[in-house]
Amino acid sequence: MASAALTSLIATLDLETERVPDIHVPPSLSATLDSLFLLNWRISDGVAAAAIKDLETKIKDFALQVEDDFEIQLSNFLHAQDTQSQQKASMQIFDILIQADMDAQELLSFIKRNIYRAFAASEFQPAASTNPRLKHYAPESSKTKRVFEEYKMVGRQHDYGVIKDRLLCHNDKLKVISIVGMAGIGKTTLAVSLYGDPQVASHFKARGWVTMPHQEYQESQLLWDLLESITLALAEPNEVEKGSCGLTKLAEQVRKCLLGKRYLIVLDNFWKECNYIQDCFPDDTNGSCILLTSYKYLKSGYFKSSQYDYVHHKMTLLGSNESWDLFCNILSLNGCVVSKFEKIRVDVVEKCDGLPQSIAVVAERLSKCNIILKEWEKIEKELELLGTLDRSALTHHYNQLPHHLKVCFLYLAVFPRRSKIQVKVLIRLWIAEGFVKQPWSLHGMLEDEAYCYLEQLILNSLLLIDNQSFDGKIKSCRMHSALHSFCIREAQKEGIFCALNIRKYPTGIPLKVFANSCRWLSLYSHNFDYYVLFRENNSRSILFFNENPEMFISFKLLRVLAFVPSSFLQRAPMRLSDLVFLRYLSVTQWFEGLNCIVSTNMNLRTLVVSGNESQLGAPTIHLPCEIWDLPQLRHLELGNMYALDPPFQMEDRKFLQTLSWASPTLYGKEAYCNFRNLRKLKIFYRGGSCSNNNPLMLDSIDYLKKLEKLTISVLVGCTITLPEQCMFPLQLKKLGLSETNLRSWDLSVISMLPQLEVLKLENAIHGNIWEVDKGGFNKLRFLLIEDRKLEQLKTYLSCFKCLERLVLRLCCCLEEISWFLAFHVESIELERCHPSLIEAAMQIQEAGKKILKRKIEIIIRGPEYDESQNTHKMEVVEDDFTRPPA
Fold this sequence. Notes:
Elements: H1 2-16, H2 27-40, H3 47-79, H4 83-121, H5 143-150, H6 157-168, E1 175-180, H7 187-196, H8 198-203, E2 206-211, H9 219-234, H10 247-258, E3 263-268, H11 275-278, E4 289-294, E5 309-314, H12 320-333, H13 345-352, H14 356-367, H15 372-385, H16 391-399, H17 403-411, E6 421-422, H18 423-433, H19 446-459, E7 464-468, E8 474-478, H20 481-493, E9 497-500, H21 511-515, E10 520-523, E11 541-544, E12 560-564, H22 566-570, E13 584-587, H23 595-600, E14 606-609, E15 621-622, E16 635-638, E17 642-643, E18 658-663, H24 669-672, E19 680-685, E20 696-697, E21 709-714, E22 720-721, E23 734-738, H25 744-751, E24 758-762, E25 769-771, E26 782-786, E27 792-794, E28 805-809, E29 827-831, H26 835-850, E30 857-861
Parallel strand pairs: 1-4, 1-5, 2-3, 3-4, 9-10, 10-11, 11-12, 12-13, 13-14, 14-16, 15-17, 16-18, 18-19, 19-21, 20-22, 21-23, 23-24, 24-26, 25-27, 26-28, 28-29, 29-30
Antiparallel strand pairs: 6-8, 7-8
Helix pairs in contact: 1-2, 1-3, 2-4, 3-4, 5-14, 9-10, 12-14, 14-15, 18-19
């Protein structure tokens, strides 16, 4: 796609030209590339798109070719053995940029001449109007949908009840209710059910329904459909003839029909801002309601009236039991015996992934066949290849995204279907690929900007949240399998992506054909067809989610090597010197050949060496200090078996944000003072000699002004002490300590940190008693204690004022906790703890319920307890409360 190619080219020119002295990108070339971006957004879906698709192809081919030519010559420059060869390569780079400038201007002129001509030549036809005379004045597009509507409330009772209560609530304000969710999740079906509910229908004097088409439409047509729907429901004649008036008169007529009446208007598939339609809805303070369905989040301030109540209702996927219930209902409707489908129950639930539309389509297909297993094999392959969602609707949805989000969305195809995607990994990959623009703010970070991209994709229902941290930050996300199918096909169609299953690749075709035919090569198991490009397209990114393949890959232009088995790189040590453009590298373990990568990559931004968890007494592997010479390094994560000496030169490493490393000694200010933008620091201490009588002094690190998360782990038997109260940065939000044996004074220091929200103590407390200081941990929201020897935890009413969640794990000696926690905590989670502690937690729950009128959730985990208790809100009989006062 042109957007991906242009984004990649601009990022490459911005970053790589700094490596060649006296070579700069011509300002006119930068301006022309920006102009091509502005024109490219006009090449969208609709009738005109087919006529000018070749224009977008021209932009894409131009950008890819310029980037290839530039990087190949830059590679020659960086590998030049003498001054003459270097000068020759430098001149060729200069010529490439000058030629690219001229070609870009010529292309821009060509696009301008032809884009408007193509739009003018195409006959733009307005979308077919929705038919308000259908059942409940709502559209029914297929038999499958009608079948689904008959069983519309399966798994949606909660959604139905919540929105119905809002519709019927006694509130005179105008209400705007937005039902949001991904395609096929049942937004329209839910709206149809509510629209036709007898109570809802009798509550509103006037009702109207209009569905916005996926493609472009005429605004007058939309207003006409709405007017016709309202007058039909009111059994009143339509005083306006179709085509006889403009927008203003149509809007006035709609407003006239609604004036003075309590009305319900449904705007289905509301994807585009329509300022003109707002004037149609009077606010007579009589409890009228506008119900919207949309795939994207709508801001609460969208409608002009400042008095309305706004409700945003997010629809979620069905659970496994709800999915099967819906499947069985549709089968029963078609006269099928449900029991004979039990053999494929698990597969159906997994492949449909909780999406009602997929379930409905599959159930319809299977209800008409005689040989279930054979038909299911066909359906399963189609689900993996094509999905069940309307491709034209998804294409329209995708085309509404700005270019930077389009390319970020397509990149999600590199991850396996139904996989959990770590947000930090995704963000770093986006940055390495050059998709993320530097924020306008001087202090803005690329990671923050990329996180905003992620949120926008989620708000557009293109990504799902998988897991969130306690402070609400998204830790992992995933793409629904139906959207994943669309994403893969779009990326493949644009000639930039290939997903290769090395276990099932076509025989007779060398693996290098795949490796050298796409920009993004991802190795993972899948069931869809293989896509081979017939043009040479040097790979820029390779991601390993599968076994180590035996293939030849040209390293010359690679910028991303992710999750790489080190054995793959060890087989070709002589080629590692070609990796001069690498920006992202994550490998399973370090080997000597990686030293040359570190020494030749001035643009390496992320370096992750996972390794195996180090065992006690295992030797430490020391990595070369040249790692600190990487000027663009932003994230350095090393497994705990790797040690790295601190940088000797006192240079400001302003880009470094994440540092995770093992250290033979605990370093002081000289090691960290130049990491002024460090946000996350993890230290694993595994060397030296220390004991309780000879504790290790942790130096002050309060000069790390931006540090938000700190994790410290040490060997069992060592003791760390804190020198003074200011040793931690005052803005620290998350702190994890493991095997540190901190004394009461040290814990007092931690309790006074003003911004601390999360604290994890894993065998970190010296002794068997912890008495929390009065007034301590005022901002703490999450506390985890894992300690086999802790016997007493003493707290006061003034402690933990903001604590929401308490987790006690492996507390075998702790028998009770203070009833003061009932004043603050919302949930207590116990895992393999003393039975008396469970009883104490239940009494705290009862104290909160009867004395403080608060609900406290008790969660019990562990092999000795019934799994059904995991989320059970325990109810206990009334007793005399021996711990809390009556």
